[in-house]
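Intended use. Records like the one below are meant for learning the mapping from a protein sequence to its folded structure. Do not use them to infer anything beyond what is encoded.
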Amino acid sequence: MIFMDRKEIASWKPESNSLCHASAGAWRYLRAACFDTDGRLVSLEPYETYYPT
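Structure written out for the chain above:
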């Protein structure tokens, strides 16, 4: 479970790599990590780009 600014909250299920719950305002804080072929972090993109809601 992650607590964010302004009392927003989200919970993640690592076993299935899925978001279980996010409060209404939490979406603006969620990001998907993008890695290159060597496993290095390239960027953080808006969650909705990779995981449609």
